């Protein structure tokens, strides 16, 4: 029997877009996205979705109320479903064994326990959150230990590779879908059922099946290798600044080798996002637990290089401003971890803002999609600062870049939003303190034009 009813636990950046696209492409399947958070579900059912993703509004508008539902009724959604995606958050542990590195599986475990409590018929349970290798086994252990008579489970691993800001396109045109399952008749049957969902819009050759552990490790490996490319080019950006080479020219030359390829070679202030750092820390922790310290140290270096890059950039700002920021106003353009998203998780802008605040600066922030409340939370939570009031009185958030930059000594570009390229920098210059500085952490601006206006300009991987 084919899948008629899907439920997804977790209405976040992964669960929401993934299930919306499944609903769009599989009109005969009822898809319910269930979350514990009443607020989140209310937002998914409103005109303003809880996440900004180009193209997502259209998809949701087409399907919501027809075959796509957002609900807080987790029990009912599980009861009805033939297949359940677990798409809950997997933050890094903040306490105990593996603190700061291991994945905290409490939400995954919570989801598995609810399924075990509620299910009354056979279910295919699909692990979609990024989870450390062997998490499927933990899910299986919980489900099997609490199994009711007449109920069987098949557990599959189906890691998600969408990137934020391009989620809908990534889902519609996925390079590949990975499905890991048990190599038994029932396991293969479950894998086939999940394949048939994706085959509604993807060619079979793009759907790759493998054993569960390979599938789980592939997700960590893909993110680790993508982040490694960024750390590699960022490490070379330091060499460029020291020698007079231009990292964009180096990246272009290197990327033309088809064995290397041109993507993910954009030097920057550093990578952010909810996945790269978390997944690598996880990989490092797993390697240590497997008694592979050399492997752990190798991957840790990708994180260390990213910290170094962020530090190098802020040091450049401080040094250029005569080694003192006390009493100065600095405008931060962009707070999201990349363009076309409102997400700020692990955003390099947080590091930049915190460092400038610690140096005594007042900061004026503009981002087209990040909410004021989010910025406030990111800069004043206890992990970032000890005295939130001291920070708060020096942070102001604006809804346009012109007022944000007025009376500032410097502008710091932290996110590569397209709209920053075409701002009227002449007008902005007129309203800034002099000498006026621009630090382009994303290499998106026309540096020569800015120098001609009168700015002092610095960027990554190139001496100007
Ligand atoms: C290399 C570069 O490829 C070439 O562009 C440069 O001009 C000279 O150095 P070469 O050393 O001749 O060429 O061979 P290459 O095919 O790069 O292999 C180098 C080594 O890496 C070999 O020992 C090869 O067996 C090994 N290798 C290569 C792997 O172990 N795995 C791979 O996936 C690829
Ligand atoms: C990443 C993976 O790309 C995706 O496959 C996985 O499912 C989740 O993690 P995401 O974090 O959403 O996606 O965005 P991504 O485009 O990978 O960018 C991550 C960070 O790297 C951003 O801060 C981005 O600005 C930075 N980056 C990316 C660079 O600094 N240079 C680059 O060349 C590419
Ligand atoms: P991701 O980026 O991986 O999608 P998010 O943090 O955006 O992660 O979303 C995860 C969602 O999962 C949150 O909205 C959270 O409320 C939800 N969640 C956590 N545990 C459960 C659970 N047991 N059942 C349903 N939803 C859950």
TrEMBL record:
SMART domains: UDPG_MGDP_dh_C. Residues 331-447 form the UDP-glucose/GDP-mannose dehydrogenase C-terminal domain. Its EC number is 1.1.1.22. NAD(+) binds at residues 10-15, 35, 40, 88-92, 129-130, 164, 275-278, 345. Keywords: NAD, Oxidoreductase. The active site is at residue 275. Belongs to the UDP-glucose/GDP-mannose dehydrogenase family. This is UDP-glucose 6-dehydrogenase.
């Amino acid at each position: 029997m084919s899948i008629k009813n899907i439920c997804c636990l977790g209405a976040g950046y992964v669960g929401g877009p993934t299930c919306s696209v499944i609903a769009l492409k599989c009109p005969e399947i009822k898809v319910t996205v269930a979350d514990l958070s009443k607020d989140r579900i209310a937002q998914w059912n409103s005109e303003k979705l809880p996440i900004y993703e180009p193209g997502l509004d259209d998809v949701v508008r087409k399907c919501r109320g027809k075959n796509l539902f957002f609900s807080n009724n987790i029990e009912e959604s599980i009861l009805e479903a033939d297949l359940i995606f677990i798409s809950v958050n997997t933050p890094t542990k903040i306490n105990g064994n593996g603190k700061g590195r291991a994945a905290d599986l409490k939400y995954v475990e919570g989801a598995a326990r609810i399924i075990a409590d509620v299910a009354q018929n056979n279910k295919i349970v699909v692990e979609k959150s990024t989870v450390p290798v062997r998490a499927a086994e933990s899910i299986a252990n919980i489900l099997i230990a609490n199994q009711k008579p007449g109920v069987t489970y098949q557990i599959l691993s189906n890691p998600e590779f969408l990137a934020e800001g391009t989620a809908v396109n990534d889902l519609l045109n996925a390079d590949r879908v990975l499905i890991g399952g048990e190599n038994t008749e029932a396991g293969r049957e479950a894998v086939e059922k999940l394949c048939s969902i994706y085959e509604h819009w993807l060619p079979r050759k793009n759907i790759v099946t493998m054993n569960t552990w390979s599938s789980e490790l592939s997700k960590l490996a893909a993110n680790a290798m993508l982040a490694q490319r960024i750390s590699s080019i960022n490490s070379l950006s330091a060499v460029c600044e020291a020698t007079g080479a231009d990292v964009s020219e180096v990246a272009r030359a290197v990327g033309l080798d088809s064995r290397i390829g041109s993507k993910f070679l954009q030097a920057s202030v550093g990578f952010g996002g909810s996945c790269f750092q978390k997944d690598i820390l996880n990989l490092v922790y797993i390697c240590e637990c497997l008694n592979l310290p050399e492997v752990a140290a190798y991957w840790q270096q990708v994180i260390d290089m990213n910290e170094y890059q962020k530090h190098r950039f802020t040091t450049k700002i401080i040094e250029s401003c005569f080694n003192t920021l006390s009493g100065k106003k600095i405008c931060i353009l962009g707070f999201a971890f990349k363009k076309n998203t409102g997400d700020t998780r692990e955003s390099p802008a947080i590091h930049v803002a915190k460092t400038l605040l610690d140096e005594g600066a007042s900061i004026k922030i503009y981002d087209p999609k990040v909410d004021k409340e989010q910025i406030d939370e990111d800069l004043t939570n206890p992990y970032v600062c000890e005295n939130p009031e001291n920070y708060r009185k020096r942070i102001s958030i604006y809804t346009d870049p012109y007022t944000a930059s007025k009376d500032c000594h410097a502008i710091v570009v932290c996110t590569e939003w397209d709209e920053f390229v075409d701002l009227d920098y002449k007008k902005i210059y007129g309203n800034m303190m002099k000498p006026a500085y621009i630090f382009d952490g994303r290499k998106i601006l026309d540096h020569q034009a800015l120098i001609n206006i009168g700015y002092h300009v610095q960027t990554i991987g190139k001496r100007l």
